[in-house]
Amino acid sequence: MKYGFFDDEKREYVITRPDTPAPWANYLGSPDYGAIISNNAGGYSFAKSGANGRLLRYVFNGNDQPGRYIYIRDNETKDYWSASWQPVGKDLNEYKSECRHGTGYSIFNADYAGIKSTATYYVPLNSAYEIWALKITNDSGKKRELTVTGFAEFTNNSNYEQDQVNLQYSLFISRTLFEKNRVMQQIHGNLSDVEKSKPVDNKIVTERFFGIAGAEADSWCGDKERFVGLYRSYKNPAGIENGNLNNIASYNENSCGAISAKISLNPGEAKTIAFITGMKYSDEADRIISSYSDTENKINTELNELKNWWHSKFRNLQVNTPSKEFNTMINTWNAYNCFMTFIWSRAASFIYCGLRNGYGYRDTVQDIQGIIHLAPEMAKEKIVFMLSAQVNNGGGLPLVKFTHNPGHEDTPDDASYVKETGHPAYRADDALWLFPTVYKYIAETGDLAFLDQKVPYANTDTGTVYDHLKRAVNFSAQRLGPHGLPAGLYADWNDCLRLGKNGESTFVAFQYYYAMTVIRSFAEYKKDSEYISYINDKQAELKKILNELCWNTDRFIRGFTEAGETIGKRTDPEASMWLNPQSWAVISGFADEEQSEKSLDSVNRILNTKYGALLMDPPYHSHAFEGALAVIYNAGTKENAGIFSQSQGWLILAESLLNHGNRAFQYFMENAPAAWNNNAEIRKMEPYCYGQFTEGKASPHFGRSHVHWLTGTASTVMVGCVEGILGLRPDAAGLKISPSIPSEWKGFTMEKNFRDKRLLITVENPEGKESGCSEFYVNGKKLEEAYIPQEMLTETTEVKLIM
Ligand code: GLC
User: Glycosyl hydrolase 94 supersandwich domain: from which residue to which, for each copy (predicted)?
Assistant: First the structure.
């Protein structure tokens, strides 16, 4: 079933059937003020923190309610509907609706009873409040008298949990009042005579506003129960049915902001108004609302700014391949998804409630990789931040608090850190993710001087970036298990695999192997010969152990438990085949040709499905060892033989590195949201964003996907496609181009900004190959290999590769 389509020109996903199999969401705003909105206007908002700055309420596990509702009432017929299909939910034969999710904005077009409306929701750039703009047009040929009402349901406490569960407290701190053009909600309003700078029991007055611009408020309501009415719902609120909100304030009730305006429209006439909401004190709210007096112009200007901001980032890489799905993902949706994970980490979605008040180390360091080619300066800032969350022993802080204070943090060795974050110990992989990330940043920009930049450690001490990386190597080197492989510590990438403190993980071993290759290249640049020979020895030792102990005929094992049990042998009754060790054996440069080919063939044979490759198989059920936490999940779910989407990106990359373009692209398509657009009822999730996992073949809902938007998948697939399939592989001195594409592609083009120059790249594939280069030209000059040295870059550099 198809619910919508990609409007690639506008970079919008257009939902033409609003009864989607799940709420299909979009993000508005920035870390300062964030909002999530579904295709039925459901969703919530928060200032600064999803957990502690929640101002619009949303009920998780609910019915995609409440939301940012705009009701329209015909005062003659008394019929009413909403600007988004829900909550009123008119018969879709009569109510025409279209939702356009764009970059940082969502538009709802509705056409009902001769009235057309366009509701546009966005957070203006660099602002901390949100706009619900409504353009309403009389398309009916006769004069119409309408009442338009905006409704926002406030939380009673900025802390999401307090609002949801501590009602004996949170109900009695909230009240609303009306001023001029806005409902003001006050939390702890009774503290208004106590100075703002002097909190009582850590509390101060907090204010939220819901205002109107472009029209006069005719009536208002600040009490949710009175607005909705007893035994009613958002579908038929009393205040809407009556056509009057009766100017009701709340005091010890659930607060809301609701404002009605009366609008008369002659035939063909249109009017634009805006509802504005945010967490601001009254004077600031007044200033904000007043600035929208020229409503329509201001809104258009702001929307253009927003689009320009986003689209200019995307323009740093645009591709035109024969695959529409690939183009839309790489040019817009995967890129947008990467920025969302980069900016929001795992803070807020319809699945993440915002309670994780910090950055997961490994997650964020990986998220950065997804945007390096689009916004290297943003990437650099975050890399420095994450380096500053590395403890001076080289390990990463498992959780980096949003309030992170470099040089002054406690570590997993301190009880206080464990208590505050809930993370009991170091994980084996965290700091190792720095290697691909720092490498990619330097390769994209050529900024080798970055290695000498000084960055503080999380707890104490300062060192150059190079020093940070050396300590990360050292962290692993000093924590080896009995076989000499990196010890499992608390966990590796797989949260559900507890091999034990002295267990050993092949995945981490491959990361460690790769880290040594990266740092050797930096050591060569720094002419650090002593360190080079140290690394050479270490890497050779590791290689020997991996070859002797971890290769198992046609696959790499997953590791050893602390008790000495081997995990992931071909003869194991469960979990005998694991995906990540196979892809990482290739990515790390460890596996020889035979191992690479065999292990990826095994993946294809044993793990692949039409929705992507399983994380492992068979699922744990009767044979789980003590640390096989995946067994707690239903078979075919998440780490227990689900199709863990993040791992698909590594598989795409690994196949590409082996020049298997057909397979790389096959894996891309199996898991690409856009590729399921016409069968969206199977995947259920948004066809324009990645999810954490898809249910595997052991599940009765094989193919259904979950945990939308905030997933490491965004960055791994992006890297798999850009570096892998498209073959854009920069290094400090230039750019190598090594596409690994489906043989049926006759060619493709790319436009890429690279070190302030514009590259126009054409790839031709007359003989239907999967990889390779027979001729290569830079600005018409034929070169021996498909590599553009930095010196050859001109303002616009034309590149041609014939495969
Ligand atoms: C989730 C976590 C991530 C972890 C992965 C695999 O995506 O956010 O940190 O690596 O699961 O367990």
Answer: 11-294
